[in-house]
Predict the structure.
Amino acid sequence: MTTSTSDADALIGDLTLAQWEALWADVPDGFAGPHRNLRGKSGLYRAICHGETVVIGKSSGKGGSDLKRRISDFIRPSSSGRNYDAGEFLNANHNTLQLMVLVTGTGRSAREMAAALKGPMLDLHMPRRNVPAHIVAGAIKG
């Protein structure tokens, strides 16, 4: 599976980044909705404030951490699952943020696809509440 974003035509799975980008779907009730249709699904979530993408994250899809549960983490009273800047921001502002999801499916291959898409989507959108993937990769390589 190719995950390079240096070539606009590079494939991530069977689609280009532009094709994946077109698959983001608005979640009408935002973070507060019931999200029943996201139960068991893996993918990415994206928070938008005044037209600007401010956070992109993913569900791990394993151990019950599907998109429904991951998104719900940001509005429940307990702080577990959001003890970092982006999570705290989402919790404090969930009522004013637009929510979009990019569902990659169910099962292991969907979890792997979500993981492969997160870095290129961070690089594409440069959300100010996330650290871009290329910076993290550079820090890890040291």
